TrEMBL record:
<dbReference type="InterPro" id="IPR008219">
    <property type="entry name" value="PRODH_bac_arc"/>
</dbReference>
<dbReference type="Pfam" id="PF01619">
    <property type="entry name" value="Pro_dh"/>
</dbReference>
<keyword id="KW-0274">FAD</keyword>
<keyword id="KW-0285">Flavoprotein</keyword>
<keyword id="KW-0642">Proline metabolism</keyword>
<dbReference type="InterPro" id="IPR002872">
    <property type="entry name" value="Proline_DH_dom"/>
</dbReference>
<dbReference type="InterPro" id="IPR029041">
    <property type="entry name" value="FAD-linked_oxidoreductase-like"/>
</dbReference>
<protein>
    <recommendedName>
        <fullName>proline dehydrogenase</fullName>
        <ecNumber>1.5.5.2</ecNumber>
    </recommendedName>
</protein>
<dbReference type="InterPro" id="IPR015659">
    <property type="entry name" value="Proline_oxidase"/>
</dbReference>
<keyword id="KW-0560">Oxidoreductase</keyword>
<feature type="domain" description="Proline dehydrogenase">
    <location>
        <begin position="45"/>
        <end position="301"/>
    </location>
</feature>
<comment type="pathway">
    <text>Amino-acid degradation; L-proline degradation into L-glutamate; L-glutamate from L-proline: step 1/2.</text>
</comment>
<keyword id="KW-0547">Nucleotide-binding</keyword>
Length: 308
């Protein structure tokens, strides 16, 4: 099981230096992260939206150590929103944010994160789009859900993410499905202990289906975050049974993974949103992409061997 090893490496400064220094790393990282700043990413947004795809934009970076960095993260999203405005894409281009970027782990971090994320949610609403709060490790979730609930008082379209591998998530899904909120379901990509999370892939898949059924049968708007063909087919069947039309839910996949499937689903009339990350602080995001799927790791290793 290489996944836990890779996730541990994502927190290692030594591994960060080693991988960042490898000559081949940038061209491999570019598969998942198509730019370092907003000037790089605007053409990508135009290209994907021109192909009938929707986007959720993530400015990568989680290692925030002081309030000034958290404010800079806020400003990076505000700059993105400013650049999105003339494109007039509305909800076809939304934002995903990690509250750790907004200072959640700092002293008085809950209040600081809420203070920093609120202007981003407000600015997004002004251009006709919205924000989804990404889930991080289990210790941050009570704070994330509380901020989500607070933001939805004024911006009910604010979304959140839940992770199938956590034991708590079935209860979270029942609560969120009843509230009419936008909920993205993913398997989970953090190293979590056996006391709080399933460790076996089959158990995680079964939990994913149970939770997805709850979301499809509820009053909210499900967002299916998966590249797994079997789970995608199950999601379509569950949606059909629940009487949902394609516009009543959406699929979400990562930029650079199964791009042909993005186009296939969009061509069939489904809402297909591409999670598109950009920025210079890419290391943690990149390592989780490797940990999620063995094929990603093989792709990186092969590139290191043949081009390094």
């Amino acid at each position: 099981m290489l996944g836990p090893v890779i996730l541990a490496a994502s927190r290692s400064d030594r591994m960060r230096r080693l991988i960042s220094a490898a000559p081949v790393t940038k061209q491999v990282v570019d598969r998942f992260i198509p730019g370092e700043d907003v000037d790089d990413i605007v053409p990508v947004i135009r290209d994907l939206s021109g192909q009938g795809l929707e986007l959720t934009m993530d400015v990568v970076g989680e290692d925030i150590t002081n309030p000034a960095q958290a404010a800079a993260a806020r400003d990076a999203y505000l700059e993105l929103i400013d650049r999105l405005k003339p494109l007039e894409l509305g909800t076809r281009a939304e934002m995903s944010v990690k509250l750790s970027m907004f200072g959640q782990a700092l002293e008085d971090g809950h209040e600081l994160a809420l203070k920093n994320v609120r202007p981003v949610v407000e600015a997004a609403a002004e251009i006709g789009t919205t924000v989804t709060l990404d889930a991080e490790d289990h210790t941050t979730l009570d704070s994330m859900f509380a901020i989500h609930e607070e933001l939805r008082k004024d911006f009910p379209q604010t979304g959140c993410v839940i992770q199938a591998y956590l034991f708590r998530t079935e209860d979270d899904a029942r609560r969120l499905a009843a509230s009419g909120s936008r909920v993205r379901l993913v398997k989970g990509a953090y190293k979590e202990p056996a006391s709080v999370a399933y460790q076996d892939k089959h158990e995680i898949d079964r939990a994913y289906v149970r939770i997805l059924r709850t979301l499809m049968e509820g009053e909210g708007y499900p967002m299916i975050g998966s590249h797994d063909p079997r789970l995608i087919a199950i999601a379509q069947e569950l949606a059909h049974r629940a009487g949902r039309k394609p516009g009543d839910y959406e699929f979400q996949m990562l930029y650079g993974i199964r791009a042909e499937e993005h186009l296939r689903l969009a061509a069939e009339g489904h809402r297909m949103r591409v999670y598109t990350a950009y920025g210079t602080d890419w290391y943690g995001y990149f390592m989780r992409r490797l940990a999620e799927k063995p094929a990603n790791l093989r792709f990186f290793a092969r590139s290191m061997l043949t081009k390094g």
